[in-house]
Amino acid sequence: MAKRSTRNTKSLIVDAAWKLFYEQGYEDTTVEEIIALSGTSKGSFYHYFGSKDDLLGSLAYLFDEKYEELAAALDVNAPALDTLLFLNRELFSMIENRIDISLLSRLLSTQLTLHGTRQLLDHNRVYFKLLRRIVVTGQERGELTGDMSASEMVRLYAMAERAVLYEWCLCDGDFSLPRYSARVLPTLLNSLKK
C-alpha cells in the first residue's frame, strides 16, 4: 500500500507541475503553486524532487502514464504496426495539446547534456516495455521481420519518434506533430514488415 501511496503522491506533483507549466510557462510557475495544486506538502515535493528543474525529467514518466492508459485500450488482435502507429498518434496528440514546446525542447536538450540518468533512454520505462511486447508479438505472428532483433526494432522505433519530436521543436511547432508523424513514420515502419 505504501508503494501505491508513493506513486500517487509523486504523480499528483508531476501532473500538477505539467498542468501549470503548460498554462503559465515553466519560468512563471513556482514550487509553491505546484504544491498547492497537487494538494501535497513541501516535504513531499522535496522528497521526490530536489528542485523545479528536476521535474523536467519527469516528462518522460508523464508520457508513460499516457502509455499505461493506452495499453489498457489496445486491441490485442490488431497488427503490430497499426498498434505502434495508434500509440504514436495518441501520444503525439497529447504532447501537442498538453506540453509546452519550450518544455519539451528543454527536456530533449537535457538528454544530450545530462551526465546522469537519461530518462528518455531508461529501458525500465513503460514505454520500452510496451513497445517490446508489441514488437515481439508482431514477430511471433509473422508480421514483422526476423532480420532484426526485437531490441533493434524498438530502438529504431524510439529513435524515429525522437527524431520527429526534435524536428518539431527545431521548427518551433510550425506543423501538426501527429499529422506529420502519421506521414513519415509509416515509411520507416514498413522496413520492419516481414
Give a written overview of the molecule.
By secondary structure, the protein is mainly α. It contains nine helices and no strands. Helix 5 runs antiparallel to helix 9 and helix 7 packs across helix 8. The chain has two domains: about 50 residues, Arc Repressor Mutant, subunit A, CATH 1.10.10; about 140 residues, Tetracycline Repressor, domain 2 (Orthogonal Bundle). It is globular, with a radius of gyration of 18 Å.
Main sheet summary: none
Number of strands: 0
Mean pLDDT: 88
Q: Per the principal axes of the C-alpha atoms, what is the gross shape?
A: globular
Give the SSE map.
Layout: H1 2-24, H2 31-38, H3 42-48, H4 59-71, H5 80-98, H6 101-113, H7 126-140, H8 150-170, H9 177-189
Helix pairs in contact: 1-2, 4-5, 5-7, 5-9, 6-8, 7-8, 8-9
